[in-house]
Amino acid sequence: MTEPPRKLLVASSLARRYAEHRFVILVVALLTTIGGHGLVGRILPTANPLEWLLALSLVAVVLSVRAGWLRGILLMLVAGLVGARLAQPLLDHPAPDLVSQSLLALACTLAAGVSVRRALSSGPVDAEHIAAALDAYLLMGIAFGVGYWLLETSQPGSLSSASGAPLTPPRVIYFSFITQATVGYGDVVPVGESAEGMAVVQGVGGQIYLAVLVARLVSLYSVRNQE
Fold it and tell me: Would residue 3 count as lying in a domain?
C-alpha cells in the first residue's frame, strides 16, 4: 500500500492543528482587525484596511465553524457579501453597500452564537473555551458596530461626534466597543430613539453576557476540580 504524498500529509496536519486551535486563531484575527487597521492605514493610506482585515476575519469565522449546514449558510453570506462589494462600483446606488454591511452583521451574529455555544459547552475549561468566549464578545461588538453604521447610513444624524469629526466605519465600531464595555467617553453619542435603543441593548447585553460567562466557566472549573 503506497503512502500518501508528503504535501497531502502536511496539509492534513495543518488542517488538524487549525481545527484544534480555531477559536484561538479567530481571536488573533479579530484583535488584529480591531486594533491594527489604524496602523495599516498609516502604512497604506490609499487602502481600506478595515474592510480587508474584516474580510480576513470573516474567512477565519467560516473556518472556525465545523462542516455542516451552518458553515454552508456562512459561505452563502460571504458569497453574497463579495457579490455586493463587486457590484457597488458598477452601480451608482447605495443598495449594494447596505446589502454587504447587512450580510456582514448577520455573519458576525451567527458566528458569535457558535462561539457562545462552544464557550458554554461542557468539558474541561481550556484555551479554546476562553478563546471562544472572547470571540463571541468581539464578534458582538463588530456586529453592533456594523448595525450602527447601517443606521447612520439610512438615518443620518443617528450618531453625533462631539468634536464634529466625520463619522467613519472604524469610528463607529470604536463607539460600539466603548458602548459594550460601558466606558462612555462621550466623544460619540447616540441621537434618537433607534440609536439609543441599540446602545441600551448592547450595553446591558454585554454585561449580562460577561456575568453568565463567568458563572458558567467557574461552574465548569469547579466540577472539573471535584472530579
Answer: no
- Sequence-distant (≥ 6) Cβ neighbours of residue 29 within 8 angstroms: 56, 57, 60
CA distance 43 to 37: 10
pLDDT in tens, the chain (227 residues): 455 566 665 566 666 776 777 888 888 888 888 887 666 666 666 556 677 777 777 777 777 777 677 778 888 887 887 777 777 666 666 666 777 788 888 888 888 888 888 888 776 777 888 888 888 999 999 999 989 999 988 888 889 888 777 888 888 999 999 999 988 788 889 988 899 999 999 999 999 988 888 887 777 666 555 55
In a domain, 1, yes or no: no
For residue 140, give the amino acid letter.
M
CB 107 within 8 A of CB 78: yes
The three cell numbers locating residue 124:
474541561
Could you give the number of structural domains in the chain?
Answer: 1
Q: Report the distance separating Cα 223 and Cα 206, nearest Å.
A: 26
Run of H or E residues at 190:
strand 188-190
Within 13 A of 99's CA, how many CA atoms are on the CB side? 17
The answer to the question of residue 2 being in a domain is no
In a domain, 129, yes or no: yes
DSSP 165: P
pTM of the model: 0.83
CB atoms within 10 A of CB 189: 16
Q: If you compute the radius of gyration of the chain from its CA atoms, what whole number of angstroms results?
A: 20
Boundaries of domain holding 173? 8-226
Task: CATH number of the domain at 43, please.
Answer: 1.10.287.70
